[in-house]
């Protein structure tokens, strides 16, 4: 354990070593996650902040499922090094999901070029520390601090704990990815390098129906989306939304086949196994939304989403039959339908994809913070990131100007 000011930092190799109640109280303050993913506000929680939305990916249940399924464990290159911040009484007052890694796969904030350059110069880029949710490019809190604690002090202690952990393991760097901007800038004040990227998110401007949303678009764009949606289901496909106990093992079997097919098409190695999806349905079924396209009662395509308190998070998609525009229908249009029907404020449809712009998803900044131990490598990366931030800001402004919404 390391002493940091008035705190003690403990490191846990597994989420199983950390009481779920402690973790969830810190990760999602003001929310209570019940059996199967049932969600409710915590009545009378001290320091409860209703402005902090619930995020399903940082729950104890989600992260532990990744471990217990064998997806995020040492043999896959994700060695748990989770930070627990304790006060003088030994009570957990902060935490951070952290992994010691020997590769840069499954992160979606790419540093392969940094690793190659450092190793060509004779350095060892790996191991490194990764503060993130494995395989999940969704913004959310990474530095958990108890609501009643001074947040700046807590974040500073966790940030300093990461650099101490780097020294302990001989790690080249620490990377906190998909942070809220406020947390990223707080780490930047501590000497971390700030990185900016972008995703495409949909924002609910108080729409009551999908037609209300279409009414906000320019006429030509509105007609194009109506035509696209008709074409997607023209062959007689029907779409169903499944959540909670309605998702059966047979549904997971079908979706897993879709998921594996998508991985094969991208010449990639799928990160998740079949066991993980069963654990997800069992422990977070109430926060899970499976959208299936059926033909003659048989699933032929599917999209998996997770449900936050104000955001729908799109994660995976796959199919066993090719149908024009079906990917757009399941992943983007149906997600908007669901968000409007359930009063959600946002849809985050995953990483990359400028094709989302025409469907009402607008460029939105994402942030990460990087601590680099070697002064020379740090200087080179800092120069690169300054130019990258400028380029991303220019691109975001340009793309925003080409969003399909009416002027004004």
Total strand segments: 18
Q: Give the strand order of the largest sheet, numbering strands 1, 2, ... along the chain.
A: 5-8-9-11-18-12-17-16-15-14-13
Shape: globular
Strand content: 25-35%
Tally of helical runs = 11
Mean pLDDT: 94
Structural class: alpha+beta
Order of helices and strands: EEHEEHEEEEHEEHEHEHHEHHEEEHEEH
The percent of residues in helical segments reads 25-40%
Can you tell me the residue ranges where pLDDT is under 50 for at least 5 consecutive residues?
Answer: none
Compute the CA-based radius of gyration: 22 Å
> What assembly state would you assign to the polypeptide chains in this entry?
single chain
**What profile does the largest beta sheet have?**
11 strands, mixed
Structure description:
The protein has helices at residues 20-27, 60-68, 112-120, 151-169, 181-189, 210-215, 219-232, 249-265, 274-284, 326-341, 375-400, and strands at 2-4, 7-12, 31-33, 39-41, 78-80, 82-86, 92-96, 98-101, 128-131, 144-145, 173-179, 193-203, 238-243, 288-295, 298-307, 311-319, 346-348, 362-372. With 408 residues, it is of the alpha+beta class. The strands form three sheets. Strands 5-8-9-11-18-12-17-16-15-14-13 form an eleven-stranded mixed sheet, sandwiched between helices. Strands 1-2-6-7-10 form a five-stranded antiparallel sheet, sandwiched between helices. The mean pLDDT is 94.
């Amino acid at each position: 354990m390391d002493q940091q000011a008035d705190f003690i930092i403990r490191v846990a190799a597994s989420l199983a070593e950390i009481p779920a109640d402690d973790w969830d109280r810190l990760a999602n303050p003001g929310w209570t996650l019940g059996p199967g993913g049932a969600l409710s506000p915590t009545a009378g929680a001290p320091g409860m902040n209703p402005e902090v939305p619930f995020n399903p990916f940082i729950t104890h249940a989600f992260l532990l499922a990744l471990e217990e399924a064998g997806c995020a464990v040492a043999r896959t290159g994700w060695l748990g090094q989770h930070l627990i911040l304790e006060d003088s009484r030994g009570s957990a007052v902060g935490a951070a999901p952290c992994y010691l890694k020997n590769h840069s796969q499954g992160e979606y904030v790419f540093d392969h070029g940094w690793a190659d350059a450092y190793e060509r110069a004779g350095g060892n880029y790996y191991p490194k520390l990764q503060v993130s949710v494995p395989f999940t490019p969704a913004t959310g809190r990474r530095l958990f601090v108890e609501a009643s604690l001074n947040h700046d002090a807590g974040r500073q202690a966790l940030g300093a704990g990461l650099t101490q952990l780097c020294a302990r393991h001989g790690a080249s760097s620490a990377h906190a990815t998909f942070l809220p901007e406020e947390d990223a800038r707080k780490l930047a004040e501590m000497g971390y390098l700030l990185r900016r990227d972008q995703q495409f998110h949909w924002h609910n401007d108080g729409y009551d129906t999908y037609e209300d949303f279409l009414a906000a678009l320019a006429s030509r764009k509105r007609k194009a989306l109506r035509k696209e949606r008709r074409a997607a289901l023209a062959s007689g496909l029907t779409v169903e939304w499944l959540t909670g106990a309605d998702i059966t093992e047979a549904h997971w079997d079908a979706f897993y086949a879709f998921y594996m097919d998508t991985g094969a098409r991208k010449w990639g190695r799928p990160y998740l196994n079949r066991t993980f999806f069963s654990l997800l349905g069992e422990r977070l079924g109430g926060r899970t939304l499976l959208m299936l396209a059926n033909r003659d009662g048989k699933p032929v395509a599917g999209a998996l989403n997770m449900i936050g308190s104000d955001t729908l998070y799109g994660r995976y998609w796959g199919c066993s039959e090719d149908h024009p525009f079906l990917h757009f229908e399941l992943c983007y249009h149906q997600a908007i339908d669901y968000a409007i029907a359930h009063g959600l404020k946002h849809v985050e449809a995953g990483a990359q994809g400028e094709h989302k712009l025409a469907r009402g998803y607008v460029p939105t900044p994402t942030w990460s913070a990087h601590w680099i131990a070697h002064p020379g490598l740090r200087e080179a990366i800092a120069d690169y990131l300054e130019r990258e931030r400028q380029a991303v800001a220019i691109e975001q402004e340009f793309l925003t100007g080409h969003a399909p919404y009416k002027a004004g």
